[in-house]
Amino acid sequence: MSEKKGKLYLVPVPLGDTDTTEIPINLKSILIEIPNFIVERGKTARQFLKKMNPAIVLQQLIMDEIAEDQTKKDWMNMLQPALEGKNIGLLSEAGCPGVADPGAKIVATAYQMGIEVVPMVGPSSLLLALMASGMNGQKFCFHGYLPAKSNELPKELKKLEMESQKNNQTQIFIETPYRNNNFIEIALNTLLPTTKFCVACDLTLPSQYILTLSIAEWRKQTLPNFHKRPTVFLLLA
Question: How many structural domains comprise the chain?
Fold first, then answer.
């Protein structure tokens, strides 16, 4: 076993099917030095790596995919090359690995194994949405996905609205893209007229749409079609 351990690089990925200009150029030289990758999907990871640096020889890479049924032992096996002195890259399907992403458990395991973790700069839909929302960036909370059942969603939205009002805290959440339109309709029918609501859709893409209005103002709008478009939602009561 090598005395010098490799590092776990957290590699950001574009938020959509675009070029890689939003990814820092210094990452290109780092990627070519990484022989092992942990990814969600091998196919899209290879496409990204080839776009980032055509000099990367894909056939020489070792690529492990994250799966729901894996255990800590599996993650430790994926990280074993770092104990042998090899660098490892962790990739999400989009955005920054480890943030609302299954890669978080890989990062946690790396620390337990004494492996250095190196986060790289790149696009994060959650941070970009918060930046562009005009809402409280000092106090905020990300809740991930809200209940999928339409009869449970209004109750959860009211709960988040009350928390926001009590703590002056921005509430951030996401929805499965094919349910976006239904989700927005429920939100507009549930939240108080004075509550600020932000829809941040297709971030960094040519079709990007970001707008923050009160619920009362949203109700007057002719809404675009958000069906199957990656979207982050924020509210501040």
Answer: 2
